[in-house]
Amino acid sequence: MIVILFGPPGSGKGTQAQRVASSVGVPHVATGDILRAEVARASALGREAEPIMRSGKLVPDDLIVRIIESRLGESDAKQGALLDGFPRTLPQADALDAMLRRTGRSVDVVVSLNVGDDELRRRVLQRASIENRADDTETAFEERLRTYRDETAPVLDYYRGAGTRIAEVDGIGEVDAVTARISDALAGNSAGVVV
Ligand code: AMP
């Protein structure tokens, strides 16, 4: 099963993705985590990505597509994956489709986590004080939100147009409650609005 967890920065994708991936039984594949690991070990890729991530902009599509292609080729991803933070642009969505088609697969469902801008701001600035993430400053956050609106939000319309199942889930509330809504939506129950 290929699941995309979709949502703006600060919508709780990372937290929810870990929980949902283990219940679905597929690996959690987060491009942001893979990039941060590359930055931490100062690889060539990490050195290229670091200033871009710090600014809140997106790293180049070809680089991300190579990362995903290699990750989805690993044996634990044969049964599927829960994608977190990918695809974030239309070319990435196209590349994912092509990649999956080659192995006779397609995206099964897109879970879209809905959280308003004020709540996103509050969460990200709170995370900044706890995790010390380089891109959780106010300026970088506003850039990430703008990038999300301009480049990433159209990806949802892309899947809508392709007839992919989309589950709209309210991302506000206790972590457990949101996880339950996502699980219900994945099971096709009514808690998430499935369109
Ligand atoms: P995240 O942890 O998903 O919020 O990602 C942190 C940062 O990594 C983003 O702001 C981007 O700079 C970069 N990044 C992560 N995933 C992608 C992607 N799919 N395409 C381009 N850049 C990405």
Detailed description of the structure:
The protein is an alpha/beta fold and 195 residues long. It has a single domain, classed as P-loop containing nucleotide triphosphate hydrolases (Rossmann fold, 3-Layer(aba) Sandwich), CATH 3.40.50.300. It contains 8 helices and 6 strands. A 6-stranded mixed sheet has the order 2-3-1-4-5-6, with helices on both faces. The model has no long low-confidence stretch (mean pLDDT 91). Bound molecules: adenosine monophosphate. Adenosine monophosphate binds next to helix 2 and helix 3.
* CATH H-level homologous superfamily name: P-loop containing nucleotide triphosphate hydrolases
Give the topology string: H per helix, E per strand.
EHEHHHEHEHHEHE
The biggest beta sheet reads: 6 strands, mixed
Shape: globular
Ends distance: 18 Å
Helix content: 55-70%
Named CATH topology: Rossmann fold
Number of helical stretches of at least 4 residues? 8
Which second-level CATH architecture applies? 3-Layer(aba) Sandwich
Q: Mean pLDDT, as a whole number?
A: 91
Query: Structural class, from secondary structure content?
Result: alpha/beta
Low-pLDDT segments, ≥5 res: none
Question: Which tags fit this structure?
Answer:
Rossmann fold, alpha/beta, binds adenosine monophosphate, 195 residues, 8 helices
